[in-house]
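Q: Convert this sequence to structure tokens.
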Amino acid sequence: MYKKEPHKRFVGFQISRTQRCFKRVIEKKVNEQGFGHEVAKYAWFIGYIHQRNNEHIYQKTLENAFNMPRSSITKMVQELEKSELITRETVEGDARLKEVVLTEKGNSFIEEHLEMLDEIEDSIRQCMTKEEAETLFRLLEKIDCVLETEAGK
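A:
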């Protein structure tokens, strides 16, 4: 496609660019509040666990939810444990299975940052109507589906 239309806009490029910009905004705001870069990049994971505080969350749950390989999730969990934001607790009846649980520090972290994440989301949504936002979500879900198929999931 690039050879045929060298000035064509690429969807993948735009999504990647937007994601990097979004990541920089979150890192900047989290760092301003005294948390390090490593913690900032995992804010979404902490939020995911927090939102599901009545559910059992395992590493496999995170792999599926974030469409990430086991090795990446393992690294993330280890870093969050090191930062004392989560613990891994043995599940009764299966010593091999570990539940991922937010610590008090993890809950405090996300409570402090929920407002920040809401502010970022609100600023993004100011540039589009509710209908445009719904269209964007539908299109991104379609893209996810195509890419998951291409990746062999």
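The first strand starts at residue 86 and ends at 91.
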